[in-house]
Write a structure and sequence with these properties.
Radius of gyration: 20 Å
Strand order of the largest sheet: 2-1-3-8-7-4-5-6
Strand content: 5-15%
Shape: globular
Bound molecules: zinc ion
Order of helices and strands: EHHEHHEHEHEEHEHEHH
Number of helices: 10
Distance between the termini: 49 Å
CATH architecture: 3-Layer(aba) Sandwich
Number of domains: 1
Structural class: alpha/beta
Length: 381
């Protein structure tokens, strides 16, 4: 009997080789390191797993989220051509430079998220992971935060147009502002973003009182954390807020934006998570919905990001890693940050006044959400 394919991984060497420039912090090659780990730890050889190569998104589908004018400028920037009015659309900044082939790259990355989503909708897969996707900062007419095309907003819009209910959980350390904007007035998408507070980090928003408007009131949930927040605090907040909301909402498909920049080693942000948070969060999310579309996202420590994605993929596929020291090959450690060749970190906790401050802020946010949002979903606060 043929084995049913349940777990799809999108991977492309070409996408992993795309270069934002030597001085740019975004390194698509993380996906290649991740793919090497999957091979080394034997996480991609199960009969119910399949690797697919991303295919270019039909350009017409950009219009599901982006404006005609912006798409036109994206086309021009694809040839490396810069005109001064592009800056009004975020194109040509240091974060979002004009790069030869940037639209081709973005369309392929978005094509994988879109195709994966459609496979889930058709019941052809249970879990899809696209490490090349997750561009949650792209706005309808503005490139920002290294994001040009919002693959998530496009795929979710296609789903809700088909009448599906979608939940979105964003664990990237930065607020998912582009996705929030896309569905702020919509109750067909439950949007949850856990991130470092906008008081200390780009994109400087994502506060708990941004709860949606009109029909979308109560369907946009922001969980900002104080600088320094560790696994204990993060996970206690996650447990109190996220499972009850997603359970009450009963989505057909759950999106996960799995940025890895909330990790303590990330150079661009200030939270203190270890791999333990990612394993716990992914494992709980997996149990909340039978169909999962997971994407990559931020993560500026390339080796750590690759390790977190490998653990996340294993968790979503329900695979126990047999040899957690397989990274130790020929006496060489996999990467400089790897803890003795293991994918998993040692425990790390903040203490003293820092711990108290993070805890206090977390308690305040939890109380706010339980009071203002839970009742709108019929959850007893
Ligand atoms: Zn990020």
């Amino acid at each position: 009997m043929e084995t049913k394919i349940q777990h799809i991984l999108f991977y492309s060497d070409a996408l992993a080789s795309f270069d934002y420039g030597a001085n740019h912090p975004f390194k698509p090659e993380r996906a290649k390191l991740f793919y090497e780990l999957l091979n080394r730890y034997a996480l991609i050889f199960e009969p119910n797993q399949k690797i697919m190569i991303p295919q270019r998104l039909d350009e017409k589908l950009l219009r599901l989220f982006h404006t005609t004018k912006y798409i036109e400028l994206l086309r021009l920037s694809n040839c490396g051509e810069f005109t001064i009015n592009m800056l009004d659309f975020g194109l040509g900044s240091s974060d979002n430079p004009i790069l030869n082939g940037i639209l081709d790259f973005s369309l392929e990355a978005a094509g994988a998220t879109y195709e994966g989503t459609m496979m889930l909708a058709r019941g052809e897969a249970e879990v899809v992971f696209n490490p090349h996707g997750g561009f949650h900062h792209a706005r309808s007419d503005f490139a920002e935060g290294f994001c040009y095309v919002n693959d998530i907003a496009i795929a979710i819009t296609a789903l809700i147009n088909e009448g599906r209910r979608v939940a979105y959980c964003d664990i990237d350390v930065h607020h998912g502002n582009g996705v929030q904007e896309a569905f702020y007035e919509d109750d067909r998408v439950l949007t949850i973003s856990l991130h470092e507070s906008g008081r200390s980090l780009y994109p400087w928003g994502g506060f708990e009182d941004e709860t949606g408007s009109g029909a979308g009131k109560g369907f946009n949930v922001n969980i900002p954390f104080c600088e320094g927040t560790d696994d204990n605090i993060y996970l206690s907040v996650f447990n109190e807020i996220v499972p009850p909301l997603i359970t009450a909402y009963e989505p057909d498909i759950l999106f996960i934006e799995c940025g890895c920049d909330a990790h303590k080693d990330d150079p661009l942000a200030h939270l203190n998570l270890t791999t333990a948070s990612y394993e716990t969060v992914l494992s709980k999310l997996k149990d909340l919905c039978p169909r999962i579309m997971a994407t990559g996202g931020g993560g500026y420590d390339a080796h750590k990001t690759a390790a977190i994605w490998a653990l996340s993929w294993a968790t979503l596929c329900g695979i126990k890693i047999k040899d957690s020291f397989a990274g130790l090959v020929g006496g060489m450690m996999y990467g400089p940050e790897a803890h003795a060749g293991s994918l998993e970190d040692e425990a790390f906790h903040v203490t003293g006044p820092e711990e108290r401050q993070c805890r206090q802020e977390a308690d305040r946010v939890v109380a706010y959400i339980r009071k203002e949002i839970f009742p709108l979903h019929g959850i007893r606060a």
